[in-house]
Design goal:
It contains 14 helices and 23 strands. With 497 residues, it is α/β, with parallel strands linked by helices. One of its GO terms (molecular function) is L-aspartate oxidase activity.
């Protein structure tokens, strides 16, 4: 059986390796170089190591609570029940998780987890350690790796996906296609995601008529450095005891949520933006109580980057701001990654498994990629349909009126699109702002050029229309989808150049 995997993060690498082990002929396509993407940038760890008093059931409860009750209980159950096997597979692949003096995996605490259950590698370099180990395994396997190949569209024959067409026109045929292309962070003017994260897989699925879900739920990470290029400061720093303080040095999160700095991300991000707007200066992350040696040992990547930028966080709090981080929605799948189109699977941030609901629990994304990557590979031989219904492209209409017939259309730059999405479909939303965004997004032409940038821009606009339309359709606040009763200006991102 020929299996084609598109994407080289933890989800795609896991699916490819497991399919190879099961005897499939596997072709792995990546847009850039193998090892690019979000996985190697993940500072936080991977959830699912259960210590004294902890259990998969408690992890599931925390996941459901962080997700605003919108998570699919069956998907959450599959995630936590698969944690042991997923972590064992990563260890077998060569991932060296940090250990205590007695040899046990050291457990960290992150926001909205009631107990420490997060495994890290290299302190704050977990994603890099996982990516490096899995890439090495892929290189040593029989997997046919194609780097620098841009997947432009899926190939359809009688309603079944039979491969993908790359940008150069080459048809890559397969019995099963797995999309693991990541999220769409580059929809927004300010994001933690690298430049290549442009919603390619979701856009391909939309054009093919695959069902999508929960695209309105976009997570904004609350602690991204305001100085220079966006640089995320892991939630694990707050889990270790760092505090968020306002211009007067006062901790303010205790007024917002019983868990203060360890509240769910959507709560913390909105509070950070609100306090910064009210005071006209950035909120600061104060980790000085942890001490210089502890910061350097526990968070070596962050410590080195801050010092490279001339910041000594062991002596002074550092300015932070929210930025777009993770897409909870995506291509709708069943528990084995099957989509509404026969022959097409999706996994990782590209997919909407139902695990994350309206707001992702910290360190569940790497776990989801590992657990569901294996589940996808193990279901590829099955012809059982997903039970999901395919759909047409998102309608450019809503209760407030039609957006399809808007007269003369115009071209758009990526910067204009990102600015509109940040201002109207970002951290704080309103019905009027979302209506304006949907209308404007449909006034813009889809780019039709032949370069990678042209196709990325077309994918971004395609996904932006779907995200904004989904947000407009959800009329009540839930998790990361937060509606203000009146038009609300976007957070000023004070200090961001």
């Amino acid at each position: 059986m020929k299996t084609l995997v598109v994407g080289g993060g933890i989800a795609g690498l896991t699916a490819a390796l497991r399919a190879d082990a099961l005897g499939h002929e596997v072709e792995l396509i990546v847009k850039g170089a193998l090892g690019d993407g979000c996985t190697p940038l993940a500072q936080g760890g991977i959830a699912g190591v259960y210590g004294h008093g902890d259990s998969p059931e408690l992890h599931a409860l925390d996941t459901m609570h962080a997700g605003g009750g919108h998570s699919d209980p069956a998907a959450v159950g599959a995630l936590v029940d698969g944690a042991d096997a997923a972590l064992a597979a990563l260890i077998a692949a060569g991932v060296a998780f940090d250990r205590t003096h007695d040899g046990e995996i050291a457990l960290g605490l992150e926001a909205a987890h009631r107990l420490p259950r997060i495994a890290h590698a290299g302190g704050d370099a977990t994603g890099a350690a996982i990516s490096s180990a899995l890439v090495a395994r892929v290189r040593a396997s029989g997997i046919d790796v194609r780097e620098g190949v841009f997947a432009a569209d899926v190939l359809l024959d009688g309603g079944r996906v039979t491969g993908i067409r790359s940008l150069d026109g080459t048809a890559h045929s397969a019995d099963a296609v797995v999309l693991a292309t990541g999220g769409a962070g580059r929809l927004f003017a300010h994001t933690t995601n690298p430049a290549e994260v442009t919603g390619d897989g979701i856009a391909m699925a939309l054009r093919a008529g695959a069902a999508v879900a929960d695209l309105e739920f976009v997570q904004f990470h609350p602690t991204v450095l305001t100085d220079g290029d966006a640089f995320l400061i892991s939630e694990a720093v707050r889990g270790a005891g760092a505090a968020l303080v306002d211009a007067d040095g006062r901790r303010f999160m205790a007024d917002e949520h019983p868990r203060a700095e360890l509240a769910p991300r959507d709560v913390v991000a909105r509070a950070v933006a609100r306090v910064a707007d009210a005071q006209g200066v950035p909120v600061r992350l104060d980790a000085t109580a942890l001490g210089s040696s502890a910061l350097a040992q526990r968070f070596p990547t962050i410590d080195a980057e801050l010092r490279r930028r001339g910041l000594d966080w062991s002596r002074e709090p550092v300015p932070v701001t929210p930025a777009a981080h993770y897409l909870m929605g995506g291509i709708a799948t069943d528990l084995d990654g099957r989509t509404s189109l026969p022959g097409l699977w999706a996994v990782g941030e590209t997919a909407r498994t139902g695990v994350h609901g309206a707001n992702r629990l910290a360190s569940n994304s790497l776990l989801e990629g590992a657990v569901f990557g294996a589940r996808v590979a193990e279901s590829l031989d099955s012809g059982v349909p997903s039970g999901l219904r395919s759909q047409s492209m998102p309608l450019c209409s809503a209760d407030s009126g039609s957006f399809c017939d808007l007269g003369e259309r115009s071209t758009v730059t990526r910067a204009e699109l990102q600015r509109l999405m940040w201002e109207k479909v970002g951290l704080l939303r309103s019905h009027d702002g979302l209506s304006d965004a949907v209308a404007q997004l449909h006034r813009w032409h889809l780019p039709t050029g032949s370069t990678v940038a042209d196709h990325e821009d077309a994918n971004l606009l395609t996904v932006a229309r779907a995200v904004a339309s989904a947000a407009l359709a959800r009329t009540e606040s839930l998790g990361s989808h937060h509606l203000s009763p009146a038009p609300h200006p976007a957070p000023a991102l004070i200090g961001v150049p």
